[in-house]
# Entry
Amino acid sequence: MEILGIDIGGTGIKGALVNTDNGALTTERFRVDTPPEATPEAVALVARQITRHFDWHGPLGCTIPARVEHGVVHTAANIHENWIETRVDELLTGATGCRTHCLNDADAAGVASVAFGAGRGRMGVVFFVTVGTGIGTALFTDQHLVPNTELGHLPLRGGAAEDWASSRIRKEEALSWEAWAARFQEYLDLLEFLFAPDTIILGGGVSRPEKVALYRHFLETEAELVIAELENEAGIIGAAWSAGQHL
Ligand code: BGC
# Structure
């Protein structure tokens, strides 16, 4: 089945058609800059622009960097505060004319990994951790997603973990890769203490091979630590796949 996946990020909103049987993109990605005031209405207009670009009228899957329960957004850590309590499935269905299912961005990247990437076939407790502007997490037990874990907000060093160990912080504080890895190691230790996962999959910008070479050797975990394979297509693929399951 072919479904349009859209991934809403802090700097770009990207879409592509996805074959949900094998997770392959069937078109080039189309990217639009995230509006400076990324209110729900402004983002909905971009979603419409993307559906028009593909002349798409079929089902739409979309990621949101927030907690999304039954089509309603409940948090807004790194997005415009007007998102809170937005009925996002309805909003995007209305704006695009496409039946829409939305889910958390880390959950989307995680389901893509479990269905088609490094998480395929991995049983037990699996954490997908995506590191970018924030830290997002997706928790799986025997391949089933426990949605909206939001463990980038675990308390660490007197604040939220993502305000200590995200890529945004690494850049803002001009941390060396070794110094960032030491912070991220503390975060992984906390996840391991709380959940004893069998596998941790690292996704987001830090999963690019040229980046991995700069920090991987500083990290040590009890769990098997693997690097995600789908890089920045994972959100699009997971959004489309999840829409296929729900619509
Ligand atoms: C948000 C999560 C999101 C993560 C990664 C966090 O700030 O609360 O919902 O998954 O950033 O984008």
